[in-house]
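Good morning C.,

I know you're traveling, so I'll keep this short. The sequence:
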Amino acid sequence: MANGKLDLNKDLKFGTMNAIEDVNVANSGDRRRTSSLAALNSTTGCTYGKNSLSRRQRFNGIVVHKKQVQTPRYANRVALLGAYVASQPLAAGGEEAVDGDSTTGNPGPYKGAPYTIYKVYVPELEPRPAPKSFTDPVLHTYPDILTVPGRVDLSGLPLGAIVQITYEDPNRLYNPQIVDGDKGKYIMMNGYEEEQANTELMFMGARPGLMGDGSGPPTLPGQPPIPGPNDPYPPGLSAAAKEKKKKAEGERLMLYNDPKNLCTIGYGHLIHHGPCSEAKAKGKIPEEWLKGGLPPDGKNKTAPQPTMTKAEAIALFDKDMSRREEWLVKKLKATNNVKVTQNQFDAMWSAVFNSGEGNVSEFIIPHLAKSPPDYKGAAEAFTVYGNMGYRTEDHKEWLPGVNRLREKERTLFYKA
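The tokens, ready to paste straight into the viewer:
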């Protein structure tokens, strides 16, 4: 283990979690009873042979993914078959669900309590490589595993937890279930640390990842403030929001390619929807910004030298800020002159600055255009996964930092 952190690809070798047994004592490899060649063959056979784990009823593994879902769950195949025949979903443990209509044969939408599905890495059984991160595509091929019904103590197992699983059919590794586990956990490397913290907030795909269902986090309780008819209209962005955004963007006095590999400079000033090499080829970079050189293509790459002063970067930021501020004021006035609070204006402006005018127009403004305005719908639109700039343009990667920003904006929208 490096720095006390578990690396699944280096530390969990074959035989680490589940001890390998030599089931044939006569060919055990004991030098007193056999030749060197026979011992070598026996050792190889017992380590990699099909019977080396035949006596084991429970297998140790480590939780590498978790997600809460809300779909019908069946205790076993008999319960599933019974539900199909009767068109009546059954809850875990075979209890009848109340979501369907037995008179019409329509099971209806499932309204049962959510539960967690896990993915467990068992190095001795898993033919696929260990995942390198929480969003490794190989996790799509791992089976979904539930905890055994009735074990309330197994709810909320964290990433990195050591668990024991059994199989309904061990020969085919069919229908695994978690039958025991420890809520202690390893801190895993290779991209797991951030997701390990974030995944505790997952609910119906609340934290997006490659395995997320796209629905977004749970709706916040309560109602955002609704401005009264005599409340003043925010003249623009608050001073606190300006400084917070400037600090969040960070000062970069040279050209750089941002986390989406888009050419940027200063305090998040977007030059081109593509890398800086492409922006230069298309003549989109002023000559004075090229004095420090170009960053290499790729995400989070920076040019060798600065090309502007701090004052120039602040002036550019103020210009970008004012343009988006003016756009938002006009957009709200054109939307039935809808009123918003200062916090709501600041939250929407932040989304405009980071995600773009088009996304705010498409996903947030329509809720405010309703009669009466749907302030809660507008707030929740900040965090619909797949929208508002959550994914890279090739739709292959989630951006956790953007997710967190959208959630902060939604929280601000709810504040009075």
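Safe travels,
E.
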